[in-house]
Amino acid sequence: MKIKLSGNERLSNALGFIVKYRVFFILAILCTGISIIQPVFFRPQNLINVLRQISSSAVLAIGFTIVLSTGNIDLSVGTLLGMTGIIMAKLSKIEGMSMFTVLAVGAIICIACGMLNAIVINVFNLPSFIVTLASMSIFKGICYIISNTTPVNNIAPYLIDVGRGHILPIPSIGFPGIPILIIIMSCVTVAMYLIINKTIFGRHAIAMGGNLEAAKVSGVNTNLVRTGVFVTMSLCAFIASVMITGRASSAQPVAGQGMEMDAIAAAVIGGTPMIGGDAKTVGTLFGCMIVGVINNGLNLLHVDSNFQLVVKGLLIMFAIILDAQSAKFFASKQIKKRTN
Predict the structure, then answer these.
(1) Do 257 and 103 contact (CB within 8 A), yes or no?
(2) How far apart are the first and last CA of the chain?
(3) Exposed, middle or buried: residue 176 (CB in 10 Å: 0-12, 13-18, 19+)?
(4) Angle formed by the axes of helices 200-210 and 180-198, to 10°?
(5) Exposure on the CB side of residue 275, measured as CA atoms within 13 A
(6) DSSP letter at 170?
(7) φ, ψ for residue 157 (rounded to 5)?
(8) Residue among 84, 66, 214 at smallest CA distance from 142
(9) Domain-located, residue 272
(10) pLDDT, position 106
(11) Does residue 111 lie in a domain region?
(12) SS3 letters for 7-62?
């Protein structure tokens, strides 16, 4: 026997579906609108360019997904990205320095920085927002000291190959191949999805964000999980640093600054709540696509770069409001189910 739903219930279910999968609807509306104004948007080369442009910020945002799932935040990853890029670029110019050594040093630095943030938060029981705000300033200062506020050019070819290389080209049809940056982004997305959804570590991270005290009572080592989360975030910053340095063919002292804001917006739009308790890795990737499509659309429309900053700020505000309102919506639906 089928249960007939009232008009209000059908509307509520429809709204719930839209809110739950909002990232896909927003992306579809944006792509449609921009393509109407600028038909060049849907050209394959432009779409590949969008994916390549968002690749490094997507890796950073995917790392942010697991941080937000625990109810924490890391504001230092943007400047950590820039500092690591400068260090690796300088090392790559030393004669006899192997690619393995350069990448290993970069990874170790990022792991150490992530552990530093986690240890300070754990030992002194401080909010992650304050601790990472302080470390953001530290990493920025170190970056400026090492680089003397000047870009590092003439970096090793293997870094450039990561940022500008392609694989599986088809010369007969003029297809240059799949950009390595897109492949890295895809691999990081799959890896993070498996970590969050298929491992005990991922389940503990989400449980920690859902209810910290309950997680502790149930035997979760929250300090260890938090350390693992910040180290994972820092490793994503390392990967993004390699990508952005290679793509620019140089290491810029200001590289990465402000990228944490785009990452937060993408993760929240993608369905990961800022208060923790859930993580949507694929949603974050689509959230990054939304940010990338907006940037690309504004460039195609020749919008002033300063105005683009205003749009990004509005996007972040929209993401926060959307997160809060969707949380209220689903909470009210749960209350109605219990009372019925």
Answers:
(1) no
(2) 19
(3) middle
(4) 70
(5) 10
(6) B
(7) -60, -30
(8) 84
(9) no
(10) 97
(11) yes
(12) HHHHHHHHHHHHHHCHHHHHHHHHHHHHHHHCHHHHCHHHHHHHHHHHHHHHHHHH
Structure tokens at 35: 């393509």
Look up residue 192 and give its amino acid.
M
Q: What is the pLDDT of residue 326?
A: 74
Distance of alpha carbon 297 from alpha carbon 315, whole angstroms: 14
Amino acid at 74: D
Amino acid at 283: G
Residues 264, 267, 270, 272: what is their CA dihedral angle, to the nearest 10 degrees? -110
Q: Each residue of 262-297: pLDDT tens digit?
A: 898 899 888 898 889 999 999 999 999 998 998 898
User: Are 299 and 50 a contacting pair, CB within 8 Å?
Assistant: no
What per-residue confidence (pLDDT) applies to 121?
Answer: 98
CA 326/CA 146 separation, integer angstroms: 44
Count how many domains the chain has. 1
Structural domain includes residue 276: no
Residue recorded with tokens 């402000």:
258
Q: Which two tokens stand for residue 254?
A: 């200001």
pLDDT value at residue 10: 73
In a domain? residue 147? yes
The whole-angstrom separation of Cα 257 and Cα 340 is 50
Sites in the chain below the pLDDT cut of 50: 1-2
Quick one: pLDDT at residue 148? 94
- Two tokens, residue 60: 């950073």
Give Cα separations from 41 to 205, 288, 292, 300, 307 (angstroms).
39, 17, 12, 8, 20
- 42-64 tens-digit pLDDT: 998 899 999 999 999 999 999 99
Range of the domain at 208: 56-163+170-257
